[in-house]
Amino acid sequence: MKLPARWPILLVTLAGFGLRAAELGRQSLWFDEAFSVVVAGINWPIFWAALLTDGVHPPGYYLLLRGWLALAGSSEFAARWPSVLAGALAIPLLYQLGRALHSRKLGLASAALLALNPFALWYAQEARMYSLLLALTLVSGLAFWRLLAQPGLKWAALLAAATALNFQIHYFAFAFSLVQFVLLLATLTKTHRALRWWAAAQAAAIGPFLPWAWAVAGREGGSFGINWIPPVTALDLPLTLSNLAFALSDPSQPLTWLALLLASAALATGVIGLYKKENARPMVAGFLLVWLLLPPLALWLMSLKQPLYVDRYFILSLPALLLLLASAALLPRGWGNAALGLLLAASLAGSLRLFTDPALQKEAWRAVAQQVQTAAQPGDALLIHDMQASIPFGYYYRGALPAQIASINDEVFPLAGLIGDSRRVWLVYRRPFQATHNLSGSEPFGWQAETQLQILDWLQAHRPNLAEETTLPGVYLLRFDLR
Known about the structure:
Elements: H1 7-21, H2 31-41, H3 44-54, H4 60-72, H5 76-101, H6 104-116, H7 118-124, H8 130-149, H9 153-169, H10 174-186, H11 188-206, H12 210-217, H13 236-246, H14 254-276, H15 283-302, H16 318-326, H17 335-356, H18 365-375, E1 381-384, H19 387-396, E2 403-405, E3 407-408, E4 411-412, H20 415-419, E5 424-430, H21 453-461, E6 466-472, E7 475-481
Parallel strand pairs: 1-2, 1-5
Antiparallel strand pairs: 3-4, 5-7, 6-7
Helix pairs in contact: 1-5, 1-6, 2-4, 2-19, 5-6, 5-7, 5-8, 6-16, 6-17, 7-17, 8-9, 8-11, 9-11, 10-11, 10-15, 13-14, 14-16, 15-16, 18-19
């Protein structure tokens, strides 16, 4: 019996949804996720003050999460559920875009690649805005392509709505509007009627963003908290490609270069195939290439002055990559099915690795909070090294000891005053995750690497009293016995 035409994409979507929902609460929230949950749960004046002080992202995702947590609670599972839903919704959206660009076959092949894509899977299981950014970018991309073929209010309104929401989710959503503008300019003789509707849609979309932009520009002493981003190197662009395709980005591992070779070969094959297909519009490949290459290349060039380059920002270019990779399935004489099968197998292997590789562990705040709760004694002093570490630790810690913060920005509080007459001292550090490409992990850290001189002096003076030292993913715990 022949299955209805919608069954294949339904099965692919269900498979992708199941993969995204699997073991959703297995790992602790890391700092960024804990920040999302904590900020979304505080009262309105502090909520707006925290977002403005941080300034790194517009408020859209936090508002969505605030409403959701009020209904579902603030567990890891609940906090990550909106990202799961957005990630699953992206699968049929990519299918529809593939159909609009070329054919049902391209739509289904690209949707299958997205369902198994490890990069998309990682962010679909994270309480952050990147999975939603992916889904809204796909809605915007579909509306834009339809607008090119049928200029008018219907598709312009959808484009304006999706773009407006995306501007409220992430600043780099503007990069996709730039992609559209470049394509319109390059094909102006064919798309001049659509250009007027597109311009009207962009004007409507940016309107709701302007109050936030004005508020951020007018704050006093605010920064964007991006000083941690490393400078760019010549390897960044190829590593981003292998990371988006298969979540492999370690240049010291041969598997990364094998993944890059596979992605590059499939990419070249897909581009050539799209250009050669008689029923493909010539601008399809051009649209996808601009979409894939322009955002990372532009940000790489900007980062030569101010480092801004981080792979998770380029999840908005992932649909273009998957559509081009899936175009290899259009090869004749069975070669297309073989190419797609190889890509799907590599994607599945990458996704399974997310659940099994010990190196892919988020910051272990649940474990460190449980350790302190279990081993702490009445009268112990509990010190959190800095304000940032107090956010994820406070999310998990339910012990009786009052947590005290040792430093806020450059201000350090005298440890002796915080400790008082306590005979035992717990000191909790965050080992920051600061990588351009890696999905998780942090550099090894010991107390000797302390940069706050007042704290370092105390640590050196009490080195003989160090009774316990615990290193966990992203977290570092010390216990001193001062008796």
